[in-house]
């Protein structure tokens, strides 16, 4: 299917401002490629993760889970490679006290305690790590993800939700420590409103992308921004989240959660996934390729850009960050300062 285009003005004389919202393994890949292609990148990272080393640290120290933030910091850092490797080093499972912890997670947790919160800690660390761009936690406080399933039951906690094996109807977030309504910091809102493009994904729809949008003022900023809003559809469906989903189903879920058709452009992979290319034991949440529904996307008001975005590595199926970044920047250069009227 050929790319669909619309005529919009070109940026001249400055780096395009790209805000990427998400979490998980896809976010650092995309922001790294955008940085290498000279974008002014702001990464808005979910803080509702409660699994792995991040979850253990969160339980002991009561800080925002640092794992996704750590990976994005490294992706945007100009530090020497050895220093990045030290920051990313994860202690061997045989080390009973530090087992499984990444050094970077411990540093982020320490700075959070020293500086009064995760947001300032990440800004301090960004300076120390010579980050080219901005890394903003979606909230300065730890959040808990909640889900209602199609059978009417509910669960709290990202790890519990994904392990439930049920179909998710909707998700929302609450402040982990009290009844305070979750809020994004003003810098996050300002970045979204000033962006040329706002990108969501790739990443787990219900547990990496939507937890950010469910922070009320952040979701409202995405609805209000005059930037081009882009959704990068996952290549594969995910067990417990998007089983049997088409690409249009992903967008319908996003629209339903924010109460409006707000996605302008959707990036869709059309390269076939070779059989036996996926290690089903290593990537046990990954199921089958997402089915295309171009008419469904058009009916939702989306422009569709379809291309070969596939990258096979480590017996897994991933997006090619360079190709995705190129398409995002093509849109950013077109959008320029002529912001469209939002629906």
UniProtKB/TrEMBL annotation:
InterPro entries, per the entry: CofD, CofD-like_dom_sf, Gluconeogen_factor, Heat_shock_70_CS
Chief location category: cytoplasm
Keywords: Cytoplasm
Protein localization: Cytoplasm
Pfam families: CofD (PF01933)
Purpose: Required for morphogenesis under gluconeogenic growth conditions.
Family indicated by similarity: Belongs to the heat shock protein 70 family.
Name of the protein in question: Putative gluconeogenesis factor
